[in-house]
Design goal:
The chain is of the alpha/beta class. The strands form 3 sheets. It has a 7-stranded mixed β-sheet, with helices on both faces. It starts with 5 loop residues before the first helix and ends with a helix. Helix 2 runs antiparallel to helix 11, helix 3 (49-64) runs parallel beside helix 11 (250-265) and helix 4 (75-88) packs across helix 10 (229-237). It has helices at residues 6-11, 33-42, 49-64, 75-88, 92-97, 122-127, 144-150, 174-183, 200-203, 229-237, 250-265, 268-286, 314-317, 321-330, 358-375, 384-396, and strands at residues 17-19, 68-72, 107-111, 132-136, 155-161, 188-191, 208-212, 223-227, 292-298, 306-312, 335-337, 346-349.
């Protein structure tokens, strides 16, 4: 059955095809039917949110193996709330005092190679709680001794980030990071927003695991906190403090429960097989083009998925990687690729968020733009700095 896309037309927004991945600025993911149904069912109803949160905690515990769980507004909110919980525990007076953390221990350790931006700086998420980030190591080097040397009486947590954005070498593995922190009585908070594995990070020593509900899980915009019961309770109590501005509604909670239930019964092997077929189709479509090299790359954080890496030689292809990405995004239909590394001469195509038939459309758009570049070499070449400046200007001039 053909999918009805008319609602986007009614809204007056572009009907984009997303091969960038589970990106928040593109709507993150396709919400699974179970979550959409539960959200629709709860919206007209009244419910005691405390009871709903208990139900979510049981569901999160079952799937993650954690002692307790909590749904919050987003993974980013979860990081801030987790830091706040590490500072206050269940002390209501302290909870109401934040973000004024004076007279509290308030330092959160983070490896320098993990200080990335997910659209906002991860360190800002720490600071929003009232805590102070303290760096460990260098951009490309860390060690157990250096981590231990940064722990003081003021240390309330270690923050560990798992993301393709982080430095992928020279950093302490989670198990070692956790061992050092735990040896000094320090809990570990993990940013796992885009991770598949709901159990392994907790088994490796994470005390609070923070996931996104709206990325690989296919839920509504929400965050999931899973971990030790006392810490999760302290996170829940932040709703009486800074967490109030990060609260999640009934639709977010039940949608997340439904997405977790669906994840438990999802045919992950069949999905991987379909994604592999898509990657093969793209490889075949690109195989005859001079100046482009298409390869399959596994996810850098060991998620069970692959992406197509398209390296572009502008001399032989007639176009730069960033201009090819720009033309794909500007065309009809717009195809949005993962272009955050385009200055290095390549970008990625992620097959995980495609509707049926869109993989063929993506192949057609790639072929069309590469054929155009072959006939018009360098004709619309742009300076990368100018491209970045235009993007920033567009943000600064919003909503015009």
């Amino acid at each position: 059955m053909e999918r009805d896309t008319s609602f986007r037309e009614q809204l007056g927004v572009r009907p984009i095809i997303n091969v960038s991945g589970t990106m928040t600025h593109l709507g993150a993911s396709i919400v699974v039917p179970q979550a959409a149904a539960w959200i629709s069912a709860i919206l007209p109803e009244f419910v005691e949110l405390g009871e709903l949160h208990k139900l979510a905690s049981h569901t999160i515990s079952r799937l993650t193996g954690a002692e307790a769980g909590l749904v919050t507004a987003s993974a980013a909110a979860g990081l801030t709330i987790g830091c706040a919980a590490a500072m206050t525990g269940s002390d209501i007076g302290r909870i109401e005092q934040l973000p004024d953390a004076s007279e509290m221990n308030n330092e959160v350790l983070i490896q320098l190679g993990h200080m990335v931006s997910y659209g906002a700086p991860v360190t800002q998420g720490i600071r929003l709680s009232g805590a102070t980030p303290v760096t460990v190591g260098d951009t490309n080097s860390s060690s157990a001794l250096r981590l231990a040397g940064r722990i003081t009486d003021k240390t309330i947590a270690g923050m560990y980030v798992v993301s393709h954005h982080t430095v992928q070498y020279g950093m302490l593995p989670l198990k070692e990071f956790s061992r050092v922190c735990h040896d000094h009585g320090v809990p570990v908070i993990c940013d796992l927003a885009s991770e598949y594995d709901l159990r392994g990070f907790l088994e490796d020593g994470c005390d609070l695991a923070i996931y996104s509900a709206h990325k690989f899980l296919g839920g509504p915009t929400a965050g999931i906190i899973a971990g030790k019961k006392e810490l999760v309770r302290a996170c829940y109590l932040q709703n009486m403090g800074i967490g109030r501005g990060m609260k999640v509604g009934k639709e977010g909670i039940v949608g997340t429960i439904a997405a977790l239930n669906a994840w438990e019964h999802r045919d992950h092997v069949a999905i991987r097989t379909a994604e592999t077929r898509t990657l093969t189709l793209w490889l075949q479509a690109l195989s005859t083009y001079k100046g482009v090299t298409a390869t399959i790359e596994p996810d850098p954080t060991q998620n069970p998925l692959d992406r197509l890496k398209l390296a572009v030689n502008p001399v032989d292809s007639g176009i730069t990687a960033w201009d090819l990405a720009r033309r794909l995004a500007a065309g009809d239909p717009p195809v949005i690729v993962r272009d955050h590394e385009s200055e290095r001469g390549h970008f990625y195509l992620d097959p995980c968020n495609l509707h049926a038939g869109e993989e063929a459309t993506v192949a057609e758009r790639l072929v069309k733009e590469l054929n155009w570049a072959k006939g018009h070499p360098g004709e619309e070449a742009t300076d990368l700095a100018e491209v970045k400046a235009r993007r920033l200007l567009a943000q600064l001039s919003w909503p015009d």
